[in-house]
Amino acid sequence: MAILTETKAGPLVLSPEQVEEIGRELDELRARITADLGDRDRDYIYSIIRAQRGFEIAGRGLMYLGFLPPFWLAGVAALSVSKILDNMEIGHNVMHGQWDWMREPGLNSREFEWDTVCPGDQWRHSHNYMHHTFTNIHGMDRDIGYGILRVDEGQAWNPLRLGNPLYAFLLMVAFEWGVMGHDLEVENIVRGKRSWPEIKELVTGQARKASKQVLKDYVIFPALTGPLFLSTLAGNFTANIVRNLWTFSIIFCGHFPTGVQTFTEEETANETRGEWYVRQMLGSANITGGKLFHIMSGNLSHQIEHHLFPDMPANRYPEIAPEVKALCEKHGLPYNTGRFAKQIGSVWLKLFKLALPPFLTGKPKPASVIVMRRGQASEVGV
After folding, report:
1. pLDDT tens-digit profile of 41-57?
2. What DSSP designation does 185 have?
3. Which of 322, 286, 324, 340 minimizes the C-alpha distance to 22?
4. Are the C-beta atoms of residues 57 and 219 closer than 8 Å to each other?
5. What percentage of the chain has pLDDT greater than the value 90?
6. How much is the pTM?
7. Fewer CB within 10 A of the end CB, N or C, for the chain?
8. First vs last Cα of the chain: how many Å apart?
9. What is the β-pairing status of strands 2-3 and 369-371?
């Protein structure tokens, strides 16, 4: 693995012993927090659920006054907050198994369904398993560009990449639909690498879930407001778009800003626990902000901590973040964090830059920190 941190004395080398020490310290941190889970965590998630339901009820109610612009805008705002909380702090985190320890049927990771078109079981496969197990490994983690974007120099360039920023914008606007189609591997269908029998069950599940969502947001709730049908439909559509824009931005800030690393299958083969932890820290980034910002991001503003401990209740990420940062500083590892404007700006700059052919963008920066693996010493390019 390689770290993009310059040192005056040359490359910083992490020995296998240091890597395993990092692993032990993170295991100890995880064990300490897990042993401390209890009433305050339970109270937290229940308070978030109450808030989400309250915003949804308020939003639905305000749509009955949608003929007055201030009430329509207030309804859209309330529904947007409701959908963001459902998607980020509740749905995403519940389906990671963060609340399974409560033995609460409504918070069971294997049964939970969220207010979006992607079926929960498909998301759990493409995200929980594929992405979190093989984070930023080329050829294994399809979240590197989602099959349509060039977000890393390690992805080959071709003329179609010139549309990179446009593809990103369209994905951002229709993000819930992009997430729904992720497990289909559309690019492989186009290349003839996936057959109908392979995807039939996936498509059937998607059609079932998407039809329920479309019926709810664009038929049933608008119909309930009678003559305000179109006004309510527009409000629901707008709230879904707001949720898509926000979710896309938070997720991309956590995965693709400047400084985030990618890896090859060869350099990550037969990883130890410590090496897996190091890869997670190098392959993700945080966003600074206040308590409300963190809640609205599902605490994915602490993406580094989330990648280290995806099944730890997310309300604990702000608590452990200083310890993770101190651990990174102790071993010379980068702790990629910054304001939202900085991180999202670097993401879009990268999307525009990587749309261009390599001869116009120059060579990627050389690796300046080397992680030694037992039995070998190799510098891995990013």
Report:
1. 999 999 999 999 999 99
2. T
3. 324
4. no
5. 82
6. 0.92
7. C
8. 8
9. antiparallel
